[in-house]
Amino acid sequence: MNFQLPYIPERSGKPRNEGLTMMMDKGLSLKEVESFIESSGEYTDYVKFGFGTSVITNKLKEKLKLYREANIRPYFGGTLFEVFVIRNMFDDYKRFISDCGLDLAEVSDGSMSMPHNEKLEYIRKLSKDVTVISEVGSKQRGVFIPANEWVSMMKTELEAGSLKVIAEARESGTIGIYNSDGSANEALINTISSQINPSDILWEAPNGKQQVWFIKLYGANVNLGNIATNGVIPLECLRLGLRGDTFFDSLPKEEKGKKQSPYDYIPYFDFQI
Question: How confident is the model over 55-114, as pLDDT tens digits?
């Protein structure tokens, strides 16, 4: 920090297990990656190459090297895993990520139908060679998964070898753990977090309103993903109470009671990041 302020939530340094930020790279150029690392690399733990972009991204290995040198763990999105699996090319997928020097892989079944036991077996196989994170939830609008099934799948995937489980929302933030208007499905999230340690979950939260909601619920060190390239620093400011949305959250009671105007404090939500 450029100035050491009091009453700032503690944020551990990298590599960390909690308070993870995952940025979604949807096709950045090498120069854009360099600029991103300069501005936001310190606050970014994982970079996911969204959907199947890694197949057509120019200078892929050079990009991966830049992220790794910045102490950021890159990986390919779960959709790419499914692209290979549905073509019966799982061994080719393993060779591809190995050739790219990746030590992190995502297993998902959000785009295709896959028996859960089969998904667990993929997690077991991959976790012998790389760290695995798995994603729970469908990418298809209108697919309903009962809360107890979310919990069961998350538990068994963690037991099978996943380091973290990702709660699906897509980059739109309007399905999975969210309602169609982007608001949090509170009943579902509360059920999940009552039975799964929140530190084991990476919640996809692509927009600012969702990020504020999770930070207020779990605190500064909640794991959040699908963050836009230009949203990492705004998110870190939310975590640290350096934006109006979380301004009072980490202050002691006597400071929270202070008013800067004769008007009652009304939270201001600026969700365009």
Answer: 999 999 999 999 999 999 999 999 999 999 999 999 999 999 999 999 999 999 988 989
Sequence letter at residue 173: G
DSSP 29-78: -HHHHHHHHHHHGGG--EEEE-TTHHHH-TTHHHHHHHHHHTT-EEEE-H
Strands 46-49 and 162-167: unpaired
Domain-by-domain residue ranges, the chain?
21-256
**The one-letter amino acid at 245:** D
What would the two tokens of residue 146 be? 């009962």
Identity of the residue numbered 161: G
Of the options 3.40.50.2000, 3.40.50.720, 3.40.50.300, 3.20.20.70, the CATH number for the domain spanning 21-256: 3.20.20.70
> Strand, helix or coil at 147?
helix
Task: Please check whether residue 22 is in contact with residue 225, taking contact to mean a CB–CB distance below 8 angstroms.
Answer: yes
Tens digit of each residue's pLDDT (9 = 90 or more) over 133-172:
999 986 666 677 889 999 999 999 999 999 999 998 766 6
Percent of the chain at pLDDT > 70 equals: 89
Task: State both tokens at 225.
Answer: 């993903």
